[in-house]
Write a structure and sequence with these properties.
This is PAS domain S-box protein. It comes from Methylomonas rosea. Keywords: Membrane, Transmembrane, Transmembrane helix. InterPro entries: DGC-Regulatory_Protein, GGDEF_dom, Nucleotide_cyclase, PAC, PAS, PAS-assoc_C, PAS-like_dom_sf, PAS_4. This protein is an alpha+beta fold. 44% of the residues lie in helices and 27% in strands. It contains 25 helices and 27 strands. It has a five-stranded antiparallel beta sheet, with helices on both faces.
Length: 746
């Protein structure tokens, strides 16, 4: 009721308030004066009424003035309360106000937002503490610390870091501070809680990151160190400190290399530091010496890189190294062992668990006629006709049982000739690596006397197709491989002539030369195309040897055949890879030069012209940079297709040299302008936008033209001059072609 009356009084202006006060005071005063005068004198006197009127006017004016002053102060106080309430509401810091009886008087919205508690959830400080600090021991510690800070009211309250359980069950780290407000008898406690959870999490993450980094530096199996711009050590791991004869990383701080055991190499190290810091380029995996605290000299493999701060400024050098002294010693020993193995006159082979050759010595290459690259990757089956393909697993099992295997076999040279060997096989295992090493001794001389006896015995143990004929080339016997290769059974082949397999591809001259070689040398071997029973023609490696009797006359012929269909396919594939570009399948530089030599020879004979068009794509690099190499490769393929569409004659060649460079050979030209027409056609074709993976790409090209014989009589000269002409086209603004013009000719 009183608040309603005050509110109404505040809405009345000062003049109205004065009139009301005068009216009320006059009416009340005149009534009292008239009543008193009537009671005392029995009449109402005018003098008394006038006196009461004056008194009432004075009193009413004084009272109204006092009321107006009170209302003004009350309005100002009300405005201050509204402003204070707005500040508390907008304050972005949780705030709580408790009275002297520890009852909660106020919470601001930020408190509810951060912790979830509302005013009804916190009837008093004690109950809230039970919810905010559910652990009794922790709650007791907090209460003790809180009370300690209020024991001396004259001192400033020291903030207290605490962990509060929110209403949703999560914990938050806060920094709490409190202030006592109010009079001496009724002191209220204002509590401010600063949420520092994110800062605590960041500090914990930083500490964990530093701990992890230090753990990595200490765990890494290499020596790690870092220096400042003056090559003073800023830190290292424990392994580096031990190398320097120090007990820990802290002992090296501030030192320089002249103070370490490797002071003799200090200037060398400092020069490397300066080079890395000045160039801002790492120096990686280089070897350098170092003197140990006990005076020994060891060999290090070191890498150094610029040490940069968060702003990218070079503030020193970071280095790592490893002691490779023992490794170098082992390398030298291995080199010596390898040299001895290579120089010995016994063939040496290393085989992995799958029976594949991993290493051979020089003599093995000499004896078989293969290069080392050719032999590595082969299996014994490919050069040992007696090797059982299915028997390797049992052989390997016996070797793993530490059994040394020794037996005789045969090896076949690259040219197809076969010679006897004695094999001794051993097994070794080291660090999980298993190998068989075999020594092969050529025993041709020892076996020379029993060659005739071994013909039949070895022929049918071989994995190659074998046939034996009489002196008239009539088949007497064939082996199983012959049947598998040709499709003819033993019954079907015996009694037939050797030409049973004739494919019709080779002419009479070929067979005449073959039999002449057999008659004169006693043997012939080479590639031949034969026909299977089903009519399929296949390539084989055929060896025909003549067997002579005691009177030196031929009594039999022994034919050894090997189906080389797969090998021929591989050879053709390798030949294609060697002469054609892997990306566009266009002829590469090797095939282009070969065809250019042939075209020059033909042009010289026929007095014709030929032209080389050297083409380079303009704006190709931005395509790779913007869309990636996959799009660039697809663009190159499409360029190749368009170039081939522009050049259709069989005498012409479109080739790719690499990158975005293409060369086109135009042969049998009757005039020089024909090359220009082709160049114009190419430029027009390549100017049409390309659509690659939904990207529309616009490129152009620059073409240089060199013409034989005016611009060169040799292939290299024509290539060089066409290249120069292409650069002249680029200098002319790109997207055009230029015929070669020498500097002398302007």
């Amino acid at each position: 009721m009183k608040y309603i009356l005050l509110s109404r009084l505040q809405r009345i202006n000062k003049y109205q308030l004065w009139l009301i006060s005068v009216f009320l005071a006059t009416a009340l005063t005149e009534s009292i004066v008239a009543m008193m005068d009537l009671l005392l004198k029995g009449e109402i006197s005018v003098d008394y009424l006038l006196t009461g009127l004056v008194a009432s006017l004075l009193v009413a004016s004084l009272i109204s003035a006092m009321i107006i002053v009170f209302l003004d102060q009350l309005s100002s106080l009300n405005d201050d309360n509204i402003q204070l309430s707005a500040i508390v509401t907008a304050l972005p810091i949780p705030l709580a106000l408790f009275d002297d009886k520890r009852h909660l008087q106020m919470l601001n919205p930020e408190f509810t937002k951060v912790f979830g508690y509302q005013l009804r959830d916190i009837p008093n400080l004690s109950e809230w503490q039970q919810r905010a600090f559910p652990d009794p021991a922790y709650r007791e510690i907090i209460n003790a610390e809180w009370q300690k800070r209020f024991e001396n009211y004259d001192l400033e309250f020291q903030p207290l870091e605490i962990k509060i359980r929110c209403k949703n069950g999560l914990n938050k780290h806060v920094l709490a501070t409190a202030t006592l407000i109010g009079g001496a008898k009724h002191k209220m406690q204002l509590v401010l809680l600063y949420d520092i959870s994110k800062r605590i999490e960041a500090m914990n993450a930083l500490a964990e990151s530093r701990s992890l980094l230090q753990s990595v530096i200490e765990t890494i199996p290499m020596r790690v160190f870092w220096k400042d711009l003056q090559s003073r050590y800023l830190g290292c791991n424990s392994q580096f400190a031990r190398d320097g004869g120090l007990t820990g990383a802290e002992d090296i701080l501030g030192k320089v290399d002249q103070q370490m055991s490797w002071h003799d190499q200090a200037e060398l190290y400092r020069a490397d530091d300066r080079l890395v810091m000045q160039s801002n380029v790492p120096k990686l995996a280089y070897e350098e010496p170092q003197t140990t605290p006990d005076g020994r000299e060891i060999l290090l493999r070191t890498s150094k890189a610029p040490l940069r701060n968060s702003r990218g400024e070079t503030i020193g050098v970071l280095g790592v190294y490893d002691d490779i002294t023992e490794l170098k010693k082992i390398e030298n020993e291995l080199w010596l062992t390898k040299t001895m193995v290579d120089k010995c006159k016994t063939a040496f082979f290393c085989l992995d668990p799958l029976g594949m050759v991993t290493y051979v010595n020089d003599y093995a290459c000499q004896s078989l006629g293969y290069s080392r690259d050719e032999l590595v990757g082969m299996t014994p089956l490919e050069f040992d006709p007696d090797f059982p393909a299915s028997g390797w697993s049992s052989i390997w099992g016996r070797l793993r049982d530490c059994e040394i295997l020794s037996h005789e076999s045969r090896h076949r040279r690259k040219d197809g000739t076969i010679f006897p060997v004695e094999l001794t096989c051993h097994y070794i295992a080291h660090n999980g690596l298993e190998l068989s090493f075999t020594f092969a001794q050529n025993i041709s001389e020892r076996k020379r006397l029993d060659t005739e006896l071994r013909i039949a015995a070895t022929a049918f143990e071989s994995q190659e197709g074998m046939m034996i004929t009489d002196a008239d080339a009539v088949i007497l016997k064939v082996n199983k491989s012959f049947t598998e290769i040709t499709g003819y059974s033993s019954e079907e082949a015996i009694g037939q002539k050797m030409n049973l397999l004739n494919s019709g591809i080779h002419d009479a001259l070929f067979f005449a030369e073959m039999w002449q070689s057999i008659d004169s040398k006693g043997v012939w071997q080479g590639e031949i195309w034969n026909r299977r029973k089903n009519g399929n023609i296949f390539p084989e490696w055929l060896t025909i040897s003549a067997v002579k009797g005691a009177d030196d006359k031929i009594t039999h012929y022994v034919g050894t055949m090997m189906d080389i269909t797969a090998r021929k396919a591989i050879e053709q594939h390798i030949h294609h890879l060697a002469h054609y570009d892997a990306l566009t399948d266009l002829p590469n530089r090797t095939l282009l030069i070969d065809r250019l030599h042939q075209a020059i020879a033909q042009a010289r004979r026929e007095h014709n012209l030929l032209a080389l068009l050297y083409l380079d794509l303009d704006k190709f690099k931005p395509v790779n940079d913007s869309f990636g190499h996959d799009v660039g490769d697809l663009l190159l393929k499409e360029v190749a297709n368009r170039l081939e569409a522009c050049v259709r004659r069989e005498t012409d060649t479109v080739s790719r040299l690499g990158g975005d460079e293409f060369v086109i050979l135009l042969g049998q030209l009757d005039r020089q302008t024909a090359a220009g027409l082709v160049a114009e056609n190419i430029l027009a074709s390549l100017n049409v936008p390309f659509l690659i993976q939904q990207h529309t790409l616009d490129i152009s090209s620059s073409v240089g033209i060199a013409v034989y014989p005016d611009d060169g009589l040799e292939a290299n000269t024509l290539m060089k001059n066409a290249d120069n002409a292409m650069y002249q086209a680029k200098c002319a603004g790109r997207g055009c072609f230029r015929f070669f013009r020498s500097v002398a000719n302007g």
